[in-house]
């Protein structure tokens, strides 16, 4: 969600684009029921240049109104499905019974999936609030390090994928409105939109973890004045002394603490999103199979403009669902990659830097702690 991190002045790099992106994401997630908690938007909108970010954290709290809104959405979905089911039985008697059964089953399963997701978000919002607090605490710990960084992170995943996902979702809604009656639109769009954005929300939080792991890796390399890029290495290099062993020991303790909390964060985030994402994957697989079947079956029917638009509609559905899956799996892989680079960074510091036995022992101990996380 954020693009830059500065230990000295995070907020100065917290541009209006970043603020606008956070606000838009929050409003979007709130509308679709994926954000029952409350976010203090005044902390984001109001510019507080020149002050340390650690003194002005962005906080979220439990919201009764948000929970009631999710409950209202669930009631509307249940009522809508009852009405739609009665409509299917009354006005589609000419269709094959198996076609009606598959259609109704798919739509009920989609509704049940999003209802379970909404219930999970209501009951477990305390966990996500604690997660945000830990992110703030990690930022504060990293800001205390003596070896400062002013690292710019070009987050193409957030700046490109999220707007693309929004555009595809909006385009899919327009096409469905063009092809189907208004009564069919919620059944076709709501499950797909909520399921795909649930995966995107999980991916965005993983992206926040990745950004902080990048900062930790950079700080580890800076402890020994080692080149911050660990992609290019030389076989033989002169060993240099540490700038100040006491400052290095001080930073190592904070880096170890921050990394440990990030490891806990990863487990908590996976715990929060695990069951909802599992439901999304199951529903997406089933619905994708059904859509593919009807799409192939329509090739043998008489050519019509409605079929062409229907192909486009299904294509958009596959596009933003696949995009969500790619975004999610890519970020999971990036988390693992950054964790591996943490171990590589520590190895590089041990190889390139001269240090006394006490500091080396401390580095080795922290290395084992980081690897075990």
UniProtKB/TrEMBL annotation:
The chain crosses the membrane at residues 20-42, 63-84, 104-123, 156-180, 192-210, 272-296, 308-328. Keywords: Cell membrane, Membrane, Receptor, Transducer, Transmembrane, Transmembrane helix. Pfam families: 7tm_7 (PF08395). InterPro entries: 7TM_chemorcpt. It is a multi-pass membrane protein. One of its GO terms (biological process) is signal transduction. It is found in: Cell membrane. The keyword Isomerase does not apply. Belongs to the insect chemoreceptor superfamily. Gustatory receptor (GR) family. This is Gustatory receptor. It comes from Cotesia typhae.
């Amino acid at each position: 969600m954020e693009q830059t991190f500065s230990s000295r002045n995070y907020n100065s790099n917290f541009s209006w684009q970043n603020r606008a992106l956070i606000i838009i994401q929050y409003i979007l997630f709130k509308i679709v029921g994926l954000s029952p908690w409350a976010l203090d938007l005044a902390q984001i909108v109001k510019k507080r240049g020149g002050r340390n970010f650690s003194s002005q954290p962005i906080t979220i709290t439990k919201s009764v109104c948000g929970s009631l809104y999710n409950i209202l959405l669930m009631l509307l979905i249940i009522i809508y499905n009852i009405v739609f089911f009665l409509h299917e039985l009354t006005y589609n008697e000419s269709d094959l019974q198996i076609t009606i059964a598959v259609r109704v089953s798919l739509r009920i399963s989609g509704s049940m999936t999003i209802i379970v997701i909404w219930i999970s978000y209501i009951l477990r919002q305390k966990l996500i609030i604690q997660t945000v607090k830990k992110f703030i605490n990690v930022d504060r710990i990293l800001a205390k390090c003596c070896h400062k960084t002013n690292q710019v992170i070009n987050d193409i995943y957030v700046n490109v994928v999220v707007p693309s996902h929004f555009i595809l979702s909006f385009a899919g809604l327009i096409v469905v409105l063009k092809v189907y009656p208004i009564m069919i639109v919620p059944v076709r769009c709501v499950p797909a939109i909520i399921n795909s954005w649930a995966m995107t929300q999980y991916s965005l939080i993983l992206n926040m973890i990745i950004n902080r792991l990048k900062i930790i890796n950079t700080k580890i390399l800076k402890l020994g004045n080692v080149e911050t890029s660990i992609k290019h290495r030389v076989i033989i290099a002169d060993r240099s002394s540490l700038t100040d062993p006491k400052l290095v020991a001080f930073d190592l303790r904070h880096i170890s603490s921050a990394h440990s909390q990030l490891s806990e964060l990863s487990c908590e985030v996976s715990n929060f999103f695990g069951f909802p994402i599992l439901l999304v994957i199951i529903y997406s697989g089933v619905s994708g199979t059904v859509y593919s079947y009807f799409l192939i079956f329509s090739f043998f029917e008489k050519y019509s403009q409605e079929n062409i638009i229907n192909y486009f509609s299904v294509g958009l559905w596959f596009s933003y669902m696949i995009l969500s899956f790619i975004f999610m799996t890519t970020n999971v892989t990036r988390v693992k990659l950054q964790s591996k680079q943490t171990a590589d960074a520590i190895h590089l510091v041990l190889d390139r830097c001269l240090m006394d036995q006490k500091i080396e022992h401390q580095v080795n101990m922290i290395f084992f702690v980081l690897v075990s996380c």
